[in-house]
Amino acid sequence: MSGYVHDLKTHGEASADHLARILYSIFKPVSVIDVGCGLGAFVKAFKEFGVKDAIGLDLPSVSTRMRLIPKEMFYEFDLTYKLNVGERYDMALCLEVAEHVPIHDTAQLVDNLCRLAPIVVFSAALPHQRGQGHINCHPPDWWRLQFEEKGYRCYDHLRDEIWHMTDIPWWYRQNIMVFGEDVFMMLDAYGLKPSPTPIRHLIHPEMHDQNIGLTSQAVHS
To answer: Is 89 part of a structural domain of the chain?
Structure first.
C-alpha cells in the first residue's frame, strides 16, 4: 500500500463534509475511527459535528504537512496487520481503501474493522474503477460475504439516498454500504433492515463517463 499520493482535491474537506453530516445524522456516534483516513478529512468533519472521540489510522507515508488533523488524532498503522484493539468505537469508517489491500490480506482488514466497531461504514472500488494501485476490486456482494463471515449484516440504504447528491464524490455514492454487528440493534436503534441479497452491483453514470473518456474529472483513490 506504499507509494500512494494523496491530494487535497480528492481527499480534502469538501469531499467529506456532506457525507459525514449524513452519517452523523443517522447514527449519532460519540466515537469514530477512520481506517485508512488519508489526510483526515472525515475525522475532522466528525469532530466538528460534535463527535467526542474521532481518530484516524493510516500509513506513516501520509504527508504530515498536508494532514487536516493534529498529530494526536492520527495513528500510524499498516492496515494489513492485526490490530490490537484497546477499545471499541461506535463507528468505523473504511472508505475507498480496501481496493489497495492485497487480496490475501482482505480477511485481516475485515477482521480489524469488525473488532473496532459494531457499525462499519465501508466502500471499495468496483472492478474496472480507475485509480491508483487498484489491486483488490470486487462487486458489493463479494464484500458482503467477507463481512458475513464475521457475523455482520449488510445495510445497503445509503446509495439510494445519496445517488444524485453531486456534493458527494461519485465513488462514495456508488460504493458505500453499512455493515452492522447486531441485526436487532440496527433495526431497533436506526430503523434499518438488512438488505436483500445479493447486494446490487450498480455502476454510477459518472464512473461510466470517466471510463469512456466523456469526463475530465480526476481519477480518485
So the answer is: yes
Does the residue 146 lie in any domain? yes
How many domains in the chain? 1
Tell me how far the alpha carbon of residue 160 is from its chain's centroid: 17
Paired residues of 57 in beta bridges: 35, 75
Is 2 a domain residue?
A: no
Structural domain harbouring 57: 8-211
**Which pLDDT value is given to residue 216?**
47
Q: What's the predicted TM-score (pTM) here? A: 0.90
Peptide bond into 169 cis (omega under 30): no
Inter-CA distances, 156 with 83, 147, 173, 198, 206, Å:
27, 13, 11, 11, 20
CATH code where residue 192 lies: 3.40.50.150
Name the nearest CA neighbour of 64 among 52, 76, 81. Answer: 76
Q: Sorting pLDDT into bands at 50, 70 and 90, what band is 188?
A: confident
Nearest alpha carbon to residue 54 among 44, 64, 66:
44
